[in-house]
Design a protein that fits this description.
With about 600 residues, the chain is of the alpha/beta class. The protein contains 18 helices and 27 strands.
C-alpha cells in the first residue's frame, strides 16, 4: 500500500491552519455491516482517532473469485457522528458527565466513482478502507486516463484537481457553464483562471501562440489588468501555483478595447485607470448599413414579441442597398441625404417612414402605421446609448474594429455603455467572430469566448439576434473551434440548449431557491446544500468522465483583479505625462 504523504489543511472560522502531513494510504476504518453496501455506495465506520472529511478520496479492495482483486474507490459524501447507546436526546448530558456509558461513533458515506476492473460487486462488511494514495487517487478520479488534463485548482487534501481538455476543445465535448450568486461565487475569477490554466499548462502544444480568448467585461475596470502582476500575491499563493504546475505570473499578451468617450471628437477610449494597450472601438455608419447591423439595435427579447421584427429586416435591407459612402469619415448618403451621426440616420428613417409616399418603398408592403410608430419609438430610444459607438465623423481609415489578432487575450470593456449598447456590441462582435471561424473552415486555432450575465443575452423565454448566435455557438461552435465559457447568476433562466451543450458545469455559491431547481440535477443533494454556504473561491465542477462533482479551490489570482492591485500601474502613476492621449501606445495624438 502506498504511503506517500499528502498535505491536509484544516479551516476553522475562516482561518486555514498550517499543512499537516497525513500518510496517504493510511487505514481509516472498515466497511459497515449495519448499513447495506452496494456497488455504487457504501458506509464506513471510522477507527478511533481517525478522521475523514467531505471530498476525501478513499479506496477498498475485494478479492472476487474468478476476477482477482477489485479496486473500489470513491469520494466521501457524508460524515456523521453520534452516541451509540443513547436512547433519548437528554442522554447526551448524562453521557458527558460519565453517568451513562456510551461510545462516540463516526461514520461516513462513500459515493463510488470507479471500480477497476469493472466487476460491480459490493465491498464486504469489515473490509479495510484507506485514504487513497497518489496512484489510487488518480485512478479514483480518472486522472490516469486523461491524456490532456489541465489543473483547475486543489481539493480539500491540497492536491491538484484536473479537467479533461478533450471536453473543452471540442474533441469529445465543449463549452463551460458557470453559475452562482453575484459578488460571492467568483464566477469571472474562475473563468479567467481556467483560461490561464489552458494557456499555461502545455495542453495546447504548438497551438498555444495562435489560440485566442475574447472576454466581455461588464463590471468596472477589474478585468483590464490581466497582464499586470498582482501586488497582493504572497509566497503561500505562489506555492499553490507550483503544486499545480503553473507559473505564478500574469497573462502575457492582453489588449483592451473600449468605447470612445461621449462627445469626444477624437474617439479617445473611455477608460480611466489603464492608458496603455487600449484601443477604441466603434462602427461607422457605412458598416452599420452595409453589414445590416440594424437588427442588433433591436436585440431584446421584447423586440421580437413587439411585432416589428419583419420591419427591421426590411429597413436593414434598404439601408444596405441604398447607403453610399461619403468622404473618409464613415458617413453615408441615403437617397440624396447625408448622415454623419447615428442621430442623423434615425431622423432620416423617421422622416421616410412617416411619409406615406416613401413608406412603401422602405417596407415593400402595406405596414400598419402603429407598427411603424412602435419601430420608430424603439429606434429613437437607441440614439443616446448607440451614438458613441456608431459614428460617421471619425477618420474611416483609423483602426476601430474589435479584433482578436492583436493579442492572445482581447478584452472588450462594456461597463461604461448602457445595457442597450452592451447588447449591440456583444451581438455584432460574436456574429463577426463566428462568421470568421466559419470562413476559415477549421477548428484550429481555438477561440474561447467568456461572456458574463448569459441569462441576459440568452434568456429562456423569447428570441433575439444575440440568442440565435449563442445557440449557434453552443450547437455548432465545437466543430468550428469556438468555445463558450458562459457565466450567469441563475442557470434556470438561461436557454436550456445552451446549458445542455456545456460539457463542463460549474457552480459556486448558490441561492437556496435556485439550488433547488432541476437545472442543478447534476449536483447531489448534499452538494446542493453545501453550495448554499460555499465560500468565495470554492467551486463545484462536474465533467462527463467523473460521476461526482469535485469541490475545487482555485488559487488567488497572480494577475491584478482591480486597478489598485496592478504593480506596473502603481509604478507608472509617477509619470506626469501618463494618461495624456499622446502617451498612449495605441492611441495616436490629436
Amino acid at each position: 500500500m502506498t504511503t506517500v504523504g499528502v498535505e491536509r489543511h484544516v479551516t476553522v472560522n475562516g482561518v486555514t491552519s498550517a499543512a499537516v502531513a497525513v500518510p496517504a494510504g493510511e487505514a481509516v476504518g472498515r466497511v459497515l455491516g449495519t448499513q447495506s453496501a452496494s456497488p455504487l455506495s457504501f458506509w464506513i465506520g471510522l477507527a478511533p482517532g481517525k478522521v475523514v472529511q467531505l471530498d476525501d478520496v478513499v479506496v477498498t479492495r475485494r478479492e472476487v473469485p474468478g476476477y482477482g482483486p477489485v479496486l473500489m474507490a470513491g469520494v466521501v459524501a457524508t460524515v456523521e457522528a453520534r452516541h451509540e447507546g443513547a436512547a433519548y436526546d437528554s442522554d447526551v448530558f448524562l453521557i458527558a458527565d460519565g453517568a451513562l456509558p456510551a461510545a462516540v461513533v463516526e461514520v461516513a458515506e462513500v459515493r463510488v466513482t470507479r471500480v477497476e476492473p469493472e466487476v460491480f460487486v459490493p465491498p464486504l462488511p469489515g473490509a479495510q478502507v484507506y485514504l487513497a494514495g497518489a496512484g489510487d487517487r488518480d485512478q479514483a478520479l480518472y486522472f490516469d486516463v486523461m491524456d490532456r488534463r489541465i489543473p483547475i485548482g486543489t481539493g480539500r487534501d491540497g492536491q491538484p484537481l484536473y479537467v479533461n481538455f478533450d471536453f473543452l476543445d471540442g474533441t469529445r465535448g465543449a463549452h463551460v457553464s458557470i453559475s452562482g450568486v453575484s459578488g460571492v461565487a467568483t464566477k469571472t475569477s474562475f473563468a479567467t483562471f481556467l483560461l490561464y490554466s489552458i494557456f499555461n499548462s502545455g495542453v495546447l502544444g504548438g497551438e498555444a501562440a495562435n489560440t485566442k480568448a475574447l472576454i466581455f467585461s461588464v463590471k468596472g475596470e477589474d478585468l483590464l489588468f490581466l497582464d499586470h502582476d498582482n501586488s497582493r500575491l504572497d509566497e503561500s499563493a505562489r506555492s499553490v501555483y507550483g503544486r499545480l504546475g503553473l507559473p505564478a505570473t500574469p497573462f502575457s499578451s492582453v489588449h483592451v478595447f473600449a468605447p470612445p468617450r461621449p462627445n469626444d471628437p477624437n474617439g479617445v477610449p473611455h477608460v480611466s485607470a489603464r492608458t496603455q494597450g487600449v484601443s477604441s472601438f466603434f462602427w461607422t455608419l457605412v458598416e452599420f448599413c452595409q453589414e445590416e447591423l440594424l437588427r442588433f439595435v433591436f436585440a431584446d427579447a421584447d423586440d421580437e414579441r413587439a411585432g416589428y421584427s419583419l420591419l427591421v429586416g426590411q429597413v436593414a435591407a434598404r439601408l444596405q442597398a441604398w447607403a453610399e459612402p461619403v468622404g473618409d469619415g464613415g458617413a453615408v448618403r441615403i437617397r440624396g441625404t447625408a448622415c454623419r451621426t447615428f442621430s442623423d440616420l434615425v431622423e432620416l428613417l423617421s422622416d421616410q417612414l412617416q411619409d406615406e409616399a416613401s413608406r412603401h418603398e422602405w417596407t415593400g408592403a402595406q405596414t400598419p402605421l402603429g407598427t411603424v410608430n412602435a419601430f420608430l419609438r424603439r429606434l429613437r430610444s437607441a440614439v443616446r446609448p448607440l451614438s458613441p459607438i456608431v459614428r460617421g465623423d471619425l477618420p474611416f481609415f483609423r483602426a476601430h474594429t474589435i479584433r482578436t489578432s492583436d493579442a492572445q487575450v482581447s478584452i472588450v470593456d462594456l461597463h461604461n455603455l448602457p445595457e442597450r449598447a452592451q447588447r449591440f456590441v456583444v451581438g455584432v462582435v460574436l456574429r463577426g467572430e463566428f462568421h470568421r471561424k466559419e470562413s476559415a473552415g477549421t477548428a484550429k486555432p481555438l477561440l474561447f469566448v467568456v461572456l458574463d450575465e448569459l441569462n441576459k443575452y440568452a434568456p429562456r423565454e423569447g428570441d433575439s439576434p444575440i440568442k440565435e448566435i449563442l445557440l449557434d455557438v453552443a450547437e455548432r461552435g465545437r466543430s468550428l473551434g469556438v468555445i463558450l465559457i458562459g457565466a450567469q447568476q441563475t442557470a434556470s433562466e438561461v436557454e436550456r440548449r445552451i446549458v445542455a451543450n456545456s460539457a463542463v458545469r460549474v457552480a459556486g455559491r448558490l441561492d437556496s431557491a435556485e439550488a433547488a431547481r432541476s437545472e442543478y440535477g447534476w449536483l447531489p443533494p448534499a452538494v446542493r446544500e453545501r453550495a448554499t454556504i460555499a465560500k468565495p473561491g470554492t467551486m463545484f465542477v462536474a465533467q462527463p468522465e467523473i460521476p461526482v462533482p469535485l469541490a475545487v479551490a482555485f488559487p488567488f489570482p497572480a494577475w491584478a483583479t482591480r486597478p489598485s492591485e496592478a504593480v506596473a500601474q502603481a509604478k507608472a502613476s509617477a509619470d506626469p505625462f501618463q494618461g495624456l492621449p499622446g502617451a498612449e501606445d495605441d492611441i495616436p495624438p490629436f
